Amino acid sequence: MSDKYDVIVIGGGPAGYVAAIRCAQLGMKTACIDQWLNKAGKPALGGTCLNVGCIPSKALLEISEQFEAISKHSREHGISVADVQMDTSLMIARKDKIVSDLTAGIAQLFQANNIDWLQGRGTLLANKEVRFEPLSEADSKIYQVENIILATGSSPVELSCAPLTDDRIVDNEGALNWHSVPERLGIIGAGVIGLELGSVWRRLGAEVVILGAMNDFLAAADKQIAKTARRELKKQGLDIRLGSRITHTQINDNELIMEYTGKDGKQQLAVDRIIVAVGRRPNVTGIAVDEAALKLDESGRIDVDDECETNIPGVYAVGDVVRGPMLAHKASEEGIAVAERIAGQKPHIDYNNCPWVIYTQPEIAWVGKTEEQLKEAGVSYRCGSFSFAANGRAKAMNQAAGLVKIIADSVTDRLLGVHIVGPMASELIAQAVIAMENENTSEDLSRMIFAHPSLSETIHEAALAVDKRAIHAVNRRRK
Ligand code: NAI
After folding, report:
1. Equal fold, 169-278 vs 355-466
2. Cα–Cα distance measured from residue 220 to residue 191, given in angstroms and rounded to the nearest whole number
């Protein structure tokens, strides 16, 4: 361990660990302070994303998707299988192994980059000092440092009317560790986490009811995409009740009662377990002493400028703890940009080209503006869409639900937004990000050669459809 650092990063999630690696690559002596303890009570890097978020949830999504494909859909391919069983304990063990492999991988990267991993709590003091309180019994230490990056992430919002219990009322973390499938599962929150975890447990056999307070389904998504997604999720048996606000939960011996106000007034629902997924709040409590005078913004996140610098020169903040979407990839890009800025470079992030993905089946992904946003801004645009139902590869995969929609400026033809609900949307959306970052037009995409047969052809056809010349669809004029 060193006594002197060029940079100290507080937080080792996708914002902080990535910032630390980039700082080290640029020749700065770097330490990363992190207090995370994993399931086994051991320090682990990777924060929420690797330990209890993106990675473990994707592991469970993948396993449950395979289970459903084998148990429910193999006959459609002519394959007979008998006695398909799900061993949830093995599933959880597999998920844990993926998590421990990846978190250990970050520790190795730290070692290889000569980054000191300080296991414990970091606090910003006044005058660019950082206090480090180790998880071990060792004394705390104060470092004077020129550059500090705050990357303390976010935590699930708690509901006073549905306090968490050991394993019956849980947040996203608890719902990743159930060793048995609940018969009836209630989810509070029809957002990203509610839909993803609801999908996992429904595929494994739970009856799932999702309560969402808002009347709109996936309000941030393009309306047509959200509508298509909702229809598909409903077909799968996800009971999504919008405009339903939870008011009370009661824990009985053999069941949980959820009380909520919905379209038809006060309602009750009996379930066996509940997941609370009503959003996340930034981890700002206690990260800086009052004397440091770190400024927060109106929403309670750390106030930063366009380049992620706080009101204290040389103190930066990145990821969920600052404005913008709480997405791991946005956080990592900010971490990289801040490291490069400290090194004197001029990095740039185009937030408009940040992709969103929801890992339901079909997946939902988009980048850029929705039709609704463009209408509101008075921008004139043209739209082209193409259905997976007319795509050979999607048919072969037995995943032909959904569509790709491309929105282009009606004057310049520049791409303004690409919206997908369909198979592998999380992968397909990268093509749209590259095209938008390169300021491509729909004409550019139309003139590129896409491999046949592939899911990507839907992007080609949607681009052609902007100019009403899709080949494998009837091109109708929109009003
Ligand atoms: P969210 O903000 O996506 O959704 C919260 C939901 O809770 C909304 O539907 C809202 O109407 C509902 N709600 C709030 N109070 C309620 C109440 N009293 N009763 C009923 N419903 C209520 O939050 P979520 O799903 O917890 O996700 C948190 C964050 O994690 C998001 O910002 C998301 O960006 C990030 N995340 C991203 C993932 C991805 O990119 N695939 C995966 C998981 C999380």
Report:
1. no
2. 10
Instruction: Express each pLDDT in 249-261 by its tens digit.
Output: 999 999 999 999 9
ω before 453 within 30° of 0 (cis)? yes
| pLDDT tens per residue across span 259-304 | 999 988 999 999 999 999 999 999 999 999 999 999 999 999 999 9
Distance 58 CA to ligand 1 centre (A): 16
Q: Is the dihedral of CA 159, 162, 166, 172 positive or negative?
A: negative
Given a cut of 80, is residue 478 above it in pLDDT?
no
What is the average pLDDT value for the chain, to the nearest integer?
97
Task: Delimit the domains of the chain by residue range.
Answer: 7-156+281-349, 169-278, 355-466
Q: Which fold has domain 355-466?
A: Enolase-like; domain 1 (3.30.390)
7-156+281-349 is classed CATH 3.50.50.60: yes
Taking the CA of residue 244 as reference, the ligand 1 atom at the shortest distance is 20
Closest residue by CA, ligand 1 atom 23 = 279
The arrangement of strands across the sheet holding 169-170 comes to: 169-170, 273-276, 184-188, 207-211, 239-241
Atom of ligand 1 lying closest to residue 260 CA: 19
- Regarding pTM above 0.90, the answer is yes
E-assigned strands of 294-401?
315-317, 356-358, 363-368, 381-387
* pLDDT tens-digit readout, 169-185: 999 999 999 999 999 99
The residues lining ligand 1, judged by C-beta closer than 6 Å to any ligand atom, are 159, 188-194, 196, 211-214, 245-246, 277-280, 325-327, 357-359
Q: How far is CA 325 from the centre of its chain?
A: 9
Q: Give the distance (Å) from ligand 1 centre to CA of residue 157.
A: 9
Q: Domain 169-278 is of which CATH architecture?
A: 3-Layer(bba) Sandwich (3.50)
